[in-house]
Design goal:
Immunoglobulin-like, six-stranded antiparallel sheet, 11 helices, globular, five-stranded mixed sheet
């Protein structure tokens, strides 16, 4: 796949398989003939040094309904098998550390194909296929803990969209270099372009003097400097992987989520399509890995276009022009229900045009308890059988989600957790009857329940009253051990982990707890999952860690500090 200069390349999904067809490779006889089936391509890869072990053999084709690639790794004798290929003509080539990419050779199934490859003549030539992280390792971090934290916070924003260290990011394109007096000026310019330009440029400027390190990094690379250490080739069980890739979506997609099955029952949608939410192009993208075909479905919406929010600025892209990611539906997350329908969080209307039952003056018990004045996204459900969408107008903002054993789908948002009872929805198609939500209120007065009249997040804690907290919820999970809901915060510096117990009579039975890691060095929360033993796992996208949390070991769960 060729790298592209815009922030997200043509969307590709990869499914990694452990292929049983490679199991017998270790028993093959020496020589240049490799046993293959009629739908395989096999052979030996060698260079002037002899057989090349641990290098990738890649077969690509555009003969199928969508672009297809299959990748395997050679064994100790340089032997490979590209197994179970669909009927097509393939372009086959070799890539490996320490080598120059071989020329592409046309091949077809059932063919013995021995491939000759050249050893890289120098370090610069060899480094062209090194992973982006190897090139990024040449960029020094600043000295001092505070400066390093600021640097990590800024880099997190970069990594949201870019693979720093790949060719488009480690080099200054002529378009930016020609009118710049220095590499630093070129960096300042390149970070201000495209739909993320205003925010991207601001984050880069926040790095202050350390911006010069980026300019120096690209200057050193332009002068021929390369990573000092070469990456290791795949070894051991790493060589057993068979990677298959399909193109899907469009070249301008910004993928935000995908699903292949109901997470509670992986037999749902067996051998069926994979569904993705392309947030930046208002699309439900589909790839069928059995039929090797892809499809793009536009998500219908009455929402006005976004043209100034995060990742939707009209700022021209040097590749795609202005309004690259102007959009309206803004789909965010995907889930597959028990009956194989596809649930999508998307903008269906203006944020402030809430249903009447969301307000405090309605008779809705959730609205009376905690009214919601706007919602950024609602929920639409796509039925693959009828190819129709049905909308659920939610008071809460729908985002990433998880479906519980009792068929509730939960969504995290700022300040509360919302849910849809999917069973009720399928029976009634009544949006109000199917949804609910709760704020996060701590039992700070210690009476074992939550009482209205709590103090608000911007007020000091009153030991005689309960206290509502504000929190972000990038990701939500259901703890299978006790059914509690857990939210991992959002934001570069966020450290919160929030637990919500719905109780038997939500919303009045809802009760929250909040936790933070014991060390300040852990920050930038992201995803969250809970395992059957009750442990809650988080990934920390800025400090670069995974953590597990065992609530049963807490001496107290009610201390607001």
């Amino acid at each position: 796949m060729k790298p592209r200069s815009h922030s997200r390349s043509a969307a590709v999904t990869a499914i990694v398989l452990i292929s049983s067809s490679l199991a017998w490779l270790g028993a093959q006889q020496a020589g240049n003939t490799v046993p293959i089936d009629p739908d395989d391509i096999g052979g030996v890869v060698s260079s002037s040094k002899g057989p090349e072990a641990g290098v990738w053999v890649i077969a690509e084709t555009t003969d199928l309904p969508t672009r297809f690639a299959r990748i395997v790794v050679t064994d100790d004798r340089g032997q490979y098998v590209l197994p179970d290929l669909p009927p097509a003509n393939y372009q086959v080539f070799v890539r490996g550390y320490g080598l120059i990419d071989s020329r592409r050779v046309t091949a077809k199934r059932g063919q013995q194909l021995n491939i000759r490859v050249d050893v890289a003549p120098d370090a610069k030539s060899a480094a062209q296929v090194y992973p982006a992280a190897w090139w990024l390792s040449m960029l020094p971090a600043p000295e001092g803990q505070d400066a390093q934290k600021t640097f990590a916070l800024g880099m997190k924003e970069c990594h949201d969209c870019h693979q720093l260290g790949n060719k488009p990011t480690r080099e200054i394109s002529p378009a930016f270099a020609k009118d710049s007096s220095s590499s630093l000026e070129a960096w300042d310019k390149r970070t201000r372009v495209g739909p993320s330009g205003p925010s991207m440029g601001a984050f880069f400027q926040n790095l202050g003097e350390h911006r010069k390190a980026f300019a120096d990094w690209t200057d050193r690379i332009a002068r021929g400097e390369t990573p000092s250490v070469a990456p290791s080739r795949p070894a051991g069980v790493e060589r057993n992987l068979v990677v298959t890739l399909w193109d899907w979506g469009t070249q301008k997609d910004g993928r935000s989520d995908m699903a292949a099955s109901d997470t509670r029952n992986p037999s749902v949608n067996a051998n069926g399509p994979v569904y993705g939410a392309s947030e930046m192009t208002d699309a439900l993208t589909i790839v069928d890995p059995v039929a090797n075909k892809a499809e793009v479905i536009r998500i219908p919406t009455n929402a006005p276009p976004l043209n100034s929010s995060f990742n939707a600025a009209p700022t021209p892209s040097p590749t795609w022009g202005p309004d690259t990611w102007k959009r309206a539906a803004d789909p965010r997350s995907i889930a597959i229900t028990a009956d194989g329908k596809v649930l999508v969080a998307a903008r269906l209307r203006e944020n402030q045009k809430q249903p009447a039952f969301c307000g405090q003056d309605s008779n809705n018990k959730f609205a009376k308890y905690y009214p919601l004045r706007q919602s950024a996204r609602q929920v639409t459900i796509y039925d693959p059988k009828t190819k129709q969408f049905s909308n659920i107008d939610t008071c809460f903002s729908a985002d990433h989600n998880q479906i519980s054993k009792d068929n509730f789908v939960y969504f995290g948002q700022n300040g509360s957790i919302g849910w849809i009872d999917l069973t009720t929805w399928e029976k009634t198609h009544d949006a109000e009857a199917s949804q609910g939500w709760c704020p996060a209120v701590l039992d700070t007065n210690g009476d074992g329940r939550i009482t209205q009249g709590w103090t608000e997040p911007d007020a000091p804690v009153d030991p005689a009253r309960d206290h509502r907290i504000q929190f972000g919820c990038y990701s939500v999970t259901v703890n299978p051990k006790d059914g509690s809901l857990w939210c991992s915060g959002i934001g570069r510096g966020d450290r919160k982990l929030m637990r919500l117990e719905k109780g038997p009579n939500a919303p009045i039975s809802c009760k929250a707890e909040v936790f933070e890691p014991p060390t300040e060095k852990t920050f930038g929360s992201g995803g969250v999952e809970a395992t059957s033993d009750g442990l809650v796992w988080q990934d920390w996208r800025v400090s670069g860690e995974f953590s597990s949390f065992d609530r049963s070991k807490c001496r107290t769960t009610s201390d607001p500090k």
